[in-house]
Amino acid sequence: MEYVAIGTKVSTSNEDISFTREHLSLATNTGEEISSPNAFMSDGLNKDVLGENELIRVFTFFLEESDVDDINELTLHIQAPQNSDEEPLGEDIDVDITF
Length: 99
Known about the structure:
With 99 residues, the chain is mostly beta strands. The protein is 0% helix and 37% strand. It has no helices and six strands. The radius of gyration is 14 Å and the shape is elongated. The two termini are 21 Å apart.
C-alpha cells in the first residue's frame, strides 16, 4: 500500500469553528485526486484539539492510482473552516508542495 503523509502545525483562537479532515484534499502531479485523508491513519481535528497552542497533525492520503516514486508535486487543498452557521471563516487555499 502506498501513501503520502503530510505534517503541519494547526492552531486557532476562534471558539466557533468547524474544521475537520474532510476540509482537506490532495491532488498529485500524476492526476490522482484524493478527497480526504484516511480516518484511521490521520490525526484528528476537532474543537478539543484545536486551540491557541500549535499542534502538529499528520494527515495520510492513500494512493490508489499512483506509485509514490512517480510523484514529485502535490497540491494540498484546504477548505476554509466554518462557523456554527456554516459560513466560511476565510478563503480556501491551495498549498503546492514540490520535492
